[in-house]
Amino acid sequence: MKTFRAAIDVMPHDNLLDPQGKAVSGSMKNLGLPEITGVRIGKHITLEVQAADQAAAEAKVEEACRKLLANQVMEKYSFAVAEVGS
Question: Are 51 and 2 in contact (CB under 8 A)?
């Protein structure tokens, strides 16, 4: 078995309201940064997985995202998996 590290990003779907992102975006003007707009706030998750190969590691990360890490009704996710030490 090899060890793989996954970097996962979970974000609200584009068509859903992001109240936290909207509040931060609105605050940018008060900070003197009116050029920054359209802020969206999500989660970044890292984890390690033991698997025989890259494909098996990616399948496990996909399953974790679908079953636990992302609410697919409200969120989308993407991830990258790399072998530790390579």
Answer: yes
Number of domains in the chain: 1
Distance CA 38, CA 18 (A): 10
Question: End-to-end CA distance of the chain, in Å?
Answer: 14
Q: Which domain holds residue 63?
A: 2-83
- The pLDDT of residue 86: 61
Mean pLDDT by 10 residues, the chain (86 residues): 97 95 94 96 98 98 98 96 88
C-beta of residue 80 within 8 angstroms of C-beta of residue 9: no
CATH code for the domain in which residue 44 is found: 3.30.1280.10
pTM over 0.85? The answer is: yes
